[in-house]
Amino acid sequence: MRWLRELDDRKLSPHTGWTRDHWAALADHLLLSARRHASPSHARISFPGEPGGYGPDVDGLEGFARTFLAAGFRVAGEGGRDPHGHLEWYARGLAAGTDPASPERWVRLDEHDQAKVEAASIALVLHLTRPWLWDRLDDGVRERVVAYLAPAIGSWYPPINWVWFQIVVEQFLASVGGPCSPADIEAGLALTDGFAREQGWYADGDKRAYDHYVGWALHFYPLLWTEMAAGDPAADTRRSAYLSRLERFLRDAVHLVGADGSPLIQGRSLTYRFAAAAPFWAGARAGVGSPGLLRRAASGIVRHFAERGAPDDDGLLTLGWHGPWRPIAQSYSGTGSPYWAAKGLYGLALPADHPVWTAVEEPLPVEEGDFQLAIRSPGWLVSGTRADGVVRVVNHGTDHALPGDQLSDSPLYARLGYSTATSPVLAGPHAADPLDQSVTLLDPSGRPSHRTGFDALLADRLPTGTALGASRWRAHWVEPGLDAPDHGSGRAGAATPGPTLTVVSALRGPWEVRLVQVAAPCTSPLRIGGWPVSSASDSLIVPGPGLDLADVTRAEDATPLSPETFIPWCGTTAAAEPGRWYVAGVHLGTAASPAPEIAWTATTARISWPDGVTDTLDLPALLR
């Protein structure tokens, strides 16, 4: 979609060129392109490609509901002006999809759980566009829509972000005089209150599940619900807490966008792509955060994809990242799934005179200068470098599991590093057997161990600005059950325990100093893996004393970013020496700076960084 460059306004948007006109043009292009794949009465939109794991009926419902989000945002922000007739087009689909006698009728909420997700999008758009759609539907269609949504009442929803789907649906039903269970809403709100963590973050349930769902679901729905339920004491009293959490979260979130607009390539459902812009628009709508910075982040994200093949030449969003790449999908992903990206178009629900559209873009943190920070809830150390615009995360707190679990490592959650310029290895042998961004021990057959279930020990920032983190785990080998659905997390199976590993990371600029200790007894060789990159020159590992092996492994079609991926690693030929601290410098960047120098005094490590800063780490004190 490089033709969008014709609309660029570098005075209003000096960093991206994007204005509201770009966003509107993108939304209309997506919506008009989707129409070509609709059923005769518009109830199902079935995009080309192999059906998803839930089958073509669910795919068709997703295609309708998720594009409906884009249509709703588009018309709501125009105050009902609808030159393309989006709402009239979708009204026909509502009538047919909710008609039990129609050959195009939708999968019901009591037939398939995925319909509970899509029902929330339908209810949300009906709320946002009520004067121009709901109020103009005939009584029979309104009755059928209520009947279609009603099975949400009293139904079971997984105790994760899905709870918000039930809350939104039932709140809409209440607003139109339909059935509703206040007890369901109260129980759901109490559960979601328990998701709140430090610094404005949420966990997606009771596990250490931190990913893009924090922004595009767990911050997206609460404030929208308070609008739907305005005047209800339960909504009005919670709103200030939701606002405060979102404001604090956004301070971290703007640091996680690369200068090229790429969001962090971490966590499940990555095929939703520019849905990652949703929390920035939520902040703008709620009046928290700087409008120029929020639009810069959101426009950077969507522009990143629009200029790299998403949507494609046919105007479609395929299963992939930039272009099509099927391995990125989870088992629940179907041909309509990528259109949750429509959440990233939420800013269109704000009118053209809103400050987020009229403010001049401000630079992202990574465009202003180098930074390091520690985000305690997910246990992330974050480093951004202005020279290359890359944001790196070293992970000592997220694995989509609980401490003590012995699961296989999910490449989407349990790797030691993620960035805006690299993808974890998601296909091929090294997806299940960790090599990239890992510290492992090898069993006698050469299989690497896993770290899921680790203890998170530290995520902090030193007075010098260096970010410091640590985690410890019992290395284990897993024979996973492969018949379980793939929801992006690690797999359970028969586990064989091994020695305990402790890893300490010091992060500054493009370099991580990684310190590794193995507890006795240990009969296994050690492996330390670096960043997986498209060019071997962009990633580097500098092994310290005792690490007598070093190489680069090449993997084919292992990530959505390039046909080839190069993974540098180092390790020991023989069994790792228990109690010894091994150290490696791990670098990601287009231009390598001199490696940090490490000097040891007993159990104290003195790190001299390339920029002249020196940090002294008393390891026993840090790990007490």
UniProtKB/TrEMBL annotation:
Residue span(s) of domain DUF2264: 19-364
Superkingdom assignment: Bacteria
Transmembrane segments: none
Protein name in UniProt: DUF2264 domain-containing protein
Organism: Nonomuraea ferruginea
Classification lineage: Bacteria, Bacillati, Actinomycetota, Actinomycetes, Streptosporangiales
